[in-house]
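Loading example: each entry is read as two labelled lines plus one structure line.
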Amino acid sequence: MLSCLLEPDSGDALVMGHSVSAERQLVKASIGVVPQEVALYGDLSARENLLFWGKMQDLRGIPLARRVDEVLEVIGLVDRQKDRVSTYSGGMKRRVNIAVALLHKPALVIMDEPTVGIDPQSRRSILDNVKQLRDQGMTVLYTTHYMEEAQELSDHVGIMDHGKLVAVGTQRELVASVGELDRIQLRLNGTAESLLENWKTLEDIHDVTSKDGVVSVFATDSNRVLPRLFESAAAAGVRIVSVDVQEPNLEAVFLHLTGRALRD
Amino acid sequence: MRAFDIALKDIRHSFTSLFGLIFMFVVPLLIVGLFAVAFGGTATSDDKTFTVPTTKIVLVNLDEGDQAIDLDPSDADPSTTAGDILTHVLSSDALQKLVAVTTVTSVNAARNAVDTRAAQVAVIIPATFTKACLQGAPQGAVEIYQDPTLTLGPGIVRAIISQSVDEFTSVRIMQSTVTMSLAATGITLSPDQAGQAVQQFVSETLAAQTNVGAIDVEAPPAKQQKPASFLATILAVYMAAMMVFYVYYTGTAGAESILLEQEQGTLQRLFTTRTTPAVVMQGKMLAILLTTALQMLVLMLVAALALGIRWGGILPIAIALVSTALCASAFGIFLMSFLRTTRQAGVVFGGVVTATGMLALASVFTMNVPSAARLGQRVALFVPQGWSLLAFRQAMDGAPLGQLLTSAAVLLAWTAVMFLVGRARMARRFA
């Protein structure tokens, strides 16, 4: 709907201030869409593809040629620009697929799982490109099943399940909203049962366990708790040998929100 | 402008597809080329006349004549028979290029010559041939024994004999008519006077045959400044038929690109740009229109150069070409609007396009069968291909412009209906 492929049955959405129902052409001018499947003409070269799609966005002549040169530079395909797209690897095709959406410098780029089924180098290149776009001030609406990608790229994350938006916010807000805790793992130079009991009484600490010489502390915010852990250990004459902090990730949040049942 | 860009992209795709090029150009030319070979070779610029191969005849003349009458007193033979006259006609210089006559004395020798393929036709004139002629019933008296695999040579021989026999019959009719007319006025002819009248009539007829020739074989009168060969005239009809048949294939294949792009995802991507579905449809239509027009132009040019086919005046042929290109494009859009996948398109190619194309060709297949020709023409006009073929034949035959414009108007009506239906269905799908 946001890419204007479907009309809403009811209601409306504004993209860069334009209604997707009443101002479709203005919305289309503001967005660049990167579909999940590569949507290019295999019998045309990368350059020819970019020229064609640029014309579909009303770019012409020298400005179009210059812009094509720029995006080819960005996706790193200057050397292969005259080869037919059908001869490209999956990763190269996906890079061209993204480049098409950038030609008219849209304010919003909608990317639908752009890294599915490609090699690690191409994936890294695409992720770097997305960060580059973000840093240039472009808004990127990035759809993915890879939580580490969302975690690496996103300022705001929305989690959808069965077609409904079940949560949206910054990563920290999402973690907080589902009550997931930071896990602090410590090694001590000796055993001190009284110290562990003391830690359990500290503010923001939910639980303390010990197993195989490793003490696990579950806390709301590790940054606030850690100084107090060191203080109380020093007071008890116990030395903390090592510290490992594991903050809850998006995958944990996602599973918490959507459950562990398999999806079709 | 964006429609033009889409059209250019599609045209490029069509003309860089080997499969497409073969179907657009090679197959129709190949089929008509085979027709050309079947009809006896291509008509080059050095060979613009229709030639019929000489038929070898063995003739046995057993006619015993009628002792009372010498049918040709002008010669030295005192008892010229109808068989002699027929032999003379077949051996005359006028028919030298059509038939080569060898005379034998027995029926068996004549039949044997045909059986051993030493000759193509045996003409056996029976002993009672003259009497049969004088009695006014010579038809069927002469036996023609032929190689059953041949049609043209024996047909010519049969026509020559039939013409001669008809003239013998006319003698009898002339004699009866004159005798009755004179009798009505009270004048009675003696047998000698009647015989003289017959002799004079036969002599004059014989002289006329010798001077003019029994059969005049020539190419049909051409309407153009430079006459086209007879072969090229036949091939032109087949070429036009094949061209129309395959142009509608091209129109459908061109429209199939809509389904193909839908499956590749490029169509949906086009709709996310500033290009509206209406512009996409215009681009597709333009691409098919230009592709089919270019296909016809190339086919007509190659056929004219290689086969000597003449397509008629520029204006009539342009009317036929443009109206056909429009109709073929709309035909493709119309058909594709009912389909969802390119796999379904295979069924359409095999079924609808071929079936409607064959209906149109009915007018060509039946053109030499008088009893079926009218039906064939009517059936062909149930499909747009039939009207396209009619328009091309009218253009080639130099038909009045009004007739051609009528055909073009019908094609444009087909175009309008099919395009509007196709566009409405597509718009509903991609809205």
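Chain B has two domains: 2-46+225-429, 55-218.
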